[in-house]
Amino acid sequence: MSAILVFLAGIFGIVGWWLARQRLTSKPWLETERAGDLPDIQRSPLPTAKIGLGIFLAVVCALFTLLISAYLTRMGSADWWGMPVPRLLWVNTAVLLVNGASMEWAKAEARLSRGETLNTALAMAFGTGFLFLLGQLLVWWQLVSAGYVLADNPANSFFYMITGIHGLHIIGGLFVLGRATVRARSILTWSKMRLSVDLCATYWHVMLIIWLVMFALFAGWANSFADLCRQLVT
Questions:
Q1: Domain span at residue 92?
Q2: Which of 174, 191, 49 is nearest to 110 (CA)?
């Protein structure tokens, strides 16, 4: 819990720093100098869209941190029965890794202003993202068919809840990535296109990192870390 509080404090600190940089706490009605003598307002060198995405992703990471913390804490209960890891999860993880590589390819093509190859890279990223989502639905179907239903035990409930929330964020990412893919076919300004691709790449990279942490948790690789967290909580 202390690590979570430190993480949240860091997020609020970053937000407060950014607000201070935007001079939102200033009182312009108290300024006595002439308009021409007022100092220039120093704006953030980052685009507003990147700052907004950074704040949103910080909130998303905080949400998954709380969910994973609850998962680790609940694992120590007597009514906890672990779930099997379907082989398809390995395939889904590989697909999401290909998605991350595709987004990096799209960023490189956008920087070089190559419209044709950019279209291919974005289409590949969208396709792998959609394939990952379909794979997750198939994993759910396999587990339910095998008798691992939602209300059977806490491990099942946590698995469906955490993967479901991650899937909702994937759907949101597909929506934005789809818009960027359509815009790439009729590029008006390369500066806006590069910004759009950068934002999409950042979002999908964060989704990949969150999934890798979740997959390590479900696969049992984080058992020693879970024992350490339970000791710290208790």
A1: 2-233
A2: 191
